[in-house]
Amino acid sequence: MTWRSALSVVLVCLGAGLGVVATLGVTVMRDWQDRVHYAGLSAIGTVLIGLSVLVRESFSVIGDKALATAIVMLVASPIASHVIMRSGRERTLGDWRRQVDEEVQGR
Predict the structure, then answer these.
(1) With CB atoms 3.0 to 4.6 Å apart as the test, which of 6, 13, 29, 58 could cross-link to 34 if both were Cys?
(2) Residues of the chain with confidence (pLDDT) below 50
(3) Number of domains within the chain
(4) Domain that holds residue 79
């Protein structure tokens, strides 16, 4: 077994482990805000799996696609989490510009 194969196996195991932890976190958490944070963790697992493919295949067509997927996940995941959190806050509190310490109507 070469060092590239060993490193790719370690990266895949770490990525899959983060995916399992993120799935359990989404399942166990009570609040939707906590669930969004655990869903963001799964993006790191996807990046690790993409890096594993890059280590194993080097810079080829397959490796370049894995690298592009990892970069897209690194950029898109925080943006999606922010949009979900903002829309949830707007749904819960009304206008998103409202101050946190202001009284919420309807409670």
Answers:
(1) 29
(2) none
(3) 1
(4) 3-92
